[in-house]
Amino acid sequence: MNNFEFYGPTRVLFGKGMISKLSDYIDKNQKILMIYGGGSIKKNGVYDQVKKALEGYNLLEFGGIEPNPKYETCMKAVELIKKENIDFLLSVGGGSTLDGTKFIAAAAKYTGNEDPYDAIVRTDGKNVVDALPIADVITLPATGSEMNNGAVISKLETNEKLPFHSEKVFPKVSIIDPSVTFSLPEKQTINGIVDTFVHTMEQYCTYDVNTPLQDLWSLGLLRTLIQEAPKVLKNPQDYDARANVFWCATCGLNCWIAQGVVEDWSTHLIGHELTAFYGIDHGQSLAIVLPRLLKNQLETKKQKLAKLAKEVFNIQESDEEKAAILAIEKIEEFFNSIGMKTKLSDYNVESLDAAEKVKDRFLKRGTKIGEKGIIDGNVAYDILKNC
Ligand code: NZQ
Ligand code: ZN
């Protein structure tokens, strides 16, 4: 097992009716900015629940954070925060709203002269010395943003989508009420399930450094997802299934399963480019890349894939490589079985066009990703041309 340092400062309030506890954790003397997305919270009653929980608070609002949150929009919130002397941010929405809020929290405290995207995002958070405190009501199970220190921010002007990390942007309090997900469009439910699956794969499916406990946690997440996904899709109002899926999503990226293991994240970094170039949803981009990337990197990943074949899909195949290939097929079958399409052509994108664009960008940036740092522009090209 590799050495590790774990830090998880977020208080999680999980379950029905938990939004009403917001006031237990937010000081009434603070001036709060509530940040939300395109308006789903006004249709499903979450907005009303939050307003009721914070009755009597000094609460301003900023709406309009888009899916794949844009730097340009976030900077408008920063302006408002400076004008109104806001002390505390409350994100109410999906991962995009929370990621946007994390960037806003850091940008509001940034005092340097550089463009905040360059200073905060391009440096992966190195210049974040302070941030406004954040609480959130998370409404979509997918990103784990409610319990981690990461955010992914897009910049319209340069057509980029990049992640940053800083322990200053861990939410102080996250409220997860699975019943708020009853209103999710089916596509978003599916996106979230796939995102969670792939987060787990990025942390589990690399090379073995003798971490049997972490491996079983990860494999348990995958098994639970495969078991619960059909239930939420069949009956979107199934509270227990929604709760199980949400907790999988949170645990899939709250850094717990990552401790002591070797991580990958190349499916995500290639997927982000598909979103930046073609507007493909985050979950969809991962479903397209993962199967082809696993095949391309089979040599490094076959041991863990063979273990997954046995533990998750009950495949009894003694030849490691054959078992690994069967596991990849089963993963793609699972994605397809829940209605997720896994080919670029399903999204009207030419694989060679995507391969060329990403190759160019990675070679220019000097990108080298994956657990062995061997996926560069040329390898990304080979992966994408088969997508
Ligand atoms: O904007 P509104 O109107 O709220 O509607 C949203 C949006 O249209 C809607 N929605 C959310 N909760 C709902 C709901 N509709 C009805 N009922 C509800 N309860 O769903 C749509 C998608 O929302 P979004 O927040 O974009 O989805 P998600 O949570 O999947 O977030 C995706 C973003 O997170 C980033 C992705 O790259 C992408 O930008 N990621 C963040 C990570 C992190 N912070 O650690 C890790 C992930 O790998 C991921 O990269
Ligand atoms: Zn993701």
Features:
Dehydroquinate synthase-like, alpha domain, binds zinc ion, six-stranded parallel beta sheet, 8 strands, binds 5,6-dihydroxy-NADP, alpha/beta, 387 residues
Offer a quick outline of the entry.
This protein has helices at residues 22-25, 40-43, 46-53, 71-84, 95-108, 116-121, 186-204, 212-234, 239-252, 266-278, 282-296, 298-313, 320-337, 351-365, 377-385; strands spanning 11-14, 31-36, 58-62, 88-93, 134-138, 150-155, 160-165, 173-176. It is an alpha/beta fold and 387 residues long. The strands form two sheets. A six-stranded parallel β-sheet has the order 1-8-5-4-2-3, sandwiched between helices.
Question: Could you please describe the fold and organization of this structure?
Answer:
The chain is an alpha/beta fold and 387 residues long. The protein folds into two domains: 11-179, Rossmann fold (3-Layer(aba) Sandwich); 185-384, Up-down Bundle (Dehydroquinate synthase-like, alpha domain), CATH 1.20.1090.10. The chain has 15 helices and eight strands. It has helices spanning 22-25, 40-43, 46-53, 71-84, 95-108, 116-121, 186-204, 212-234, 239-252, 266-278, 282-296, 298-313, 320-337, 351-365, 377-385; strands spanning 11-14, 31-36, 58-62, 88-93, 134-138, 150-155, 160-165, 173-176. The strands form two sheets. It has a six-stranded parallel sheet with strand order 1-8-5-4-2-3, with helices on both faces. The protein has a two-stranded antiparallel sheet with strand order 6-7. It starts with 10 loop residues before the first strand and ends with a helix. It binds 5,6-dihydroxy-NADP and zinc ion. 5,6-dihydroxy-NADP binds at residues 37-41, 44, 67-68, 93-97, 99, 139-140, 142-145, 148, 150-152, 180-181, 183-184, 188, 191-192, 195, 253, 268, 282.
